[in-house]
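Standup notes, structure subgroup. Blocker cleared on the KG4 input:
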Amino acid sequence: MTAFSCILGIETSCDETAASVVLRRDDGRGEILSDVVLSQLDEHSAYGGVVPEIAARAHVEALDTLVEEALLRSNVTLRDIDAIAATAGPGLIGGLLVGLMTGKAIARATGKPLYAINHLEGHALTARLTDKLTFPYLMLLVSGGHTQLVLVRGVGDYERWGTTIDDALGEAFDKTAKLLGLPYPGGPEVERAAAGGDPKRFNFPRPLVGEARLDFSFSGLKTAVRQAAEGLAPVSSQDIFDICASFQRAIGRTLEDRIGRGLQRFKHEFPETEDLPALVVAGGVAANQHIRAVLTALCEKNGFRFVAPPHRLCTDNAVMIAWAGLERMALDLPVDDLDVSPRSRWPLDNQAKALIGFGRRGAKA
Ligand code: KG4
Ligand code: ZN
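Run returned:
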């Protein structure tokens, strides 16, 4: 029996082309041997969002080289790899086809097994690689395509406690930036502008706050931002700063309420966890310092550990895909047939109902 396993991961579900080699020792410790990510930001920024056809073409052009690069940097060859893990969904179908077909081709050529990985599972399990978390824990995924609070009970065992009924949180940031004339992607721009603004100048709505369900809604907030900007037109720089600061404050307050309820529910359902209970954050919006501060304080107040993997592993990457494959392999979960198809929609929690809109722009995760 070997002391470790090694997987080549491939990620192409949205606008990052990524390949990585990750190793998992039999004691559960992981090691990232390589992590190569090529962002397509420049290709898409002129359009103010991800263009699926451009994304798919860019994946085709980059992926072979990236896989070679990942192998080279990790100092292993395909012979040393135990399996291939490729994202099979959810995401933009063109990109998923490119990554999954490449994974299948390598699997066929080498005779190694293939794991068709759910991208959201990749996000959900990352903290086990970075912070050795034990099950169960809560994960808040806040990206351009998703806003979900998920109970992670085990590998392949997820329960969605809350999701957005309209825009994803990153999408709300991007749309707010757009209507204020700030560049794409809007999240970092809004955060920068907010730093110079008065968070109390506008009292923006906080939809669903106070409700027992753990869902989110951000489209009303976006409308309120538009109305504020239209009411002031032409907006000054200070107006923009104040709107961004007030917008961010409304988001912070909303998360405080929604996630606070989630933490309480977790404590109620799991009164005795082995370690301090944990809230893990993932997705590009996790970079936001205000949101981090809110979540950190909330966790402290509720006796939770706040776990934020390094930013590079919070956004889309292939490390998390390889790691999800390794977790599946360690449990002897079934590998996938080479005729497995990509799925643009693929909820983590099969029991959860799709809510109206449910926060998917294109199919970014
Ligand atoms: O996870 P990610 O890199 O890509 C996917 O959506 O898959 O997330 C990108 C999203 C964008 O909507 C971007 O505006 C947002 O994350 N974002 C931020 C910040 N940095 C990135 N939102 C708020 N504050 C930030 N600092
Ligand atoms: Zn993602």
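Discussed briefly. The longest helix spans residues 237-269.
Next: hand off to the docking folks.
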